[in-house]
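Predict the 3D structure for this chain.
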Amino acid sequence: MYKKMEIPSIQLSLEHIEELDFTCPAAKKSINIGKEIIPVKFVVNIYPDVKRDYFKLITGVRYIRRRNFIGQELLFYRIAVVYKIEKLKDFVKLENSQVTVDTRLLALLLSISIGSMRGMLALRTQNTVFKNYPLPLINVSEILTSMNITDSEGIWENLNIYYNN
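Done. Predicted structure below.
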């Protein structure tokens, strides 16, 4: 659950970025995407450590082609970004296994993490069929609206992108 809390300012630093997963079966073979709609699923996992003032945000994407009702994974990519946030307890509340994060903080962290993932994914796909198809723009406000996470499983958000060769 996410709600707006009154806060004066956010003091943070980006401590660490780590690539967790990259699989791209499409890189090993020549595939023709044409004008297909390729659903891109977006994942977010949050791991706040209020005692140490660290906030780990995992973001990922999965490109899946659907043919004859069968899903074919074309690409999977996930990164972890760790932030050091001064007085994290002022922004994150942990109650009864539920995490409540200030939406302004989460919007900022998501924007940074998605931008980082976009650049890292561009580097990883530079020699694949996806080199000319960067990660689509992701509306952080829509993601925040759809999020209501009560465990570490995250949320998958469907984004439809069109590839035009």
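Confidence is low (pLDDT under 50) at residues 149-165.
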